[in-house]
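request received
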Amino acid sequence: MKKRNLLTVLSTIVLSASIVIPASAAGNHPGTPEQQTYNSSGFTNYAQLGKKLKKIERTSNGKVDVSVAGHSNSGRNIYQARVGDGDRVIMIESEIHGNEKTGTEALLNILQHLGSSNSPQVQKIREEITLVALPKMNPDASELERRGNDMTWAEVVKNFPQLANSDGPTWNYYTGTLQGDQYADKPGFDVNRDFNPDLDYVPQADDIPGASDDPGWFITPEAQTVRDVYKGLKQEFGKVDVFVDLHHQGLYYVDGTDEPVTLSLSGQFVPHPSSEEGQEYAEYTDTYNYEFSKQLNVAAYDALQSMGKSPFDNITLYSQGLDLPGTALGSFALNGSGTVLFEVTGQTQSMGQKKKGMLVKAVETGLNGIIKGVAEGTVQNLDADRYYEIPETSYSPGI
Ligand SMILES: [Zn+2]
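response:
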């Protein structure tokens, strides 16, 4: 199969392809990632997260502020941690898919470091940036060890009665045997398709999202919480300079080799609003800043490369040519944030603690490259075109 076709198919089904592919896209397609059996031992669960964040806050002597930004559909806290007083804002989110957990560990390490170190470099970071971390944005999914949240369509209709006569549920609803039997008793939504570039969007019965290139509806409390944090920061600072989303993917290879990918990066989630394909986003032409997104990706890539050999090599570019306005990344990119996707390899069933630790370190290293580059103002000097020098990912090993 030609790569273009493959990427088109991929772009309609998966960003952050992980655990199990939606049934509508399942099959023996060569682009379908190998399924991931996730072993969550050694990762911070919901109860531990609350304790760890409190400890980080306490030992930071006021430098890290931890609060509850909102609640999941089952009533769990969605924690937010904030450090720094600078006027450039970096917002980072992890576990929008609950079974993709390395980013959470990396964020805890970064918060601990930025909140406790008094090195000149860290002091400078705290002066120049405000870091807002949402380390477990979808805690119900995290506790269920799965991609989607824990919410029925009936609950959505209860919250939005105007949807009672719609053709719902939305396409990103997992129920019955979709995604295996894990949703049979507890249906849920892919929260990372529930965002809308119009941050004030109110669901209406006649424009129900039917596919991945439709904007989402903000029907999940998890997406609403992140949207509200984003809007609050926009109000406070004028804009959210950077938004990073931390994910896991299946097992892929560096294009043209048999080297397994450690981590893929991307700054492209919707067509450029000034392009023909991006016409529907024309109103965002002035805010969309793809050049800055590419520079941020280069900053992360350079930091990873500077660490030398494994596990910091085998960094690739994630699938390009996407049109996913329902993702947090797509919506926030259109609203003017420089955006970066991290996709760590998700083949962890045979992975020991050492390998997990190395993957966490890889995420941490890439994030630190972004944080340092933004704090020092060096990101804007990077050649955005070097983005295209990041090796491509082979989504179809063996063909
Ligand atoms: Zn994901």
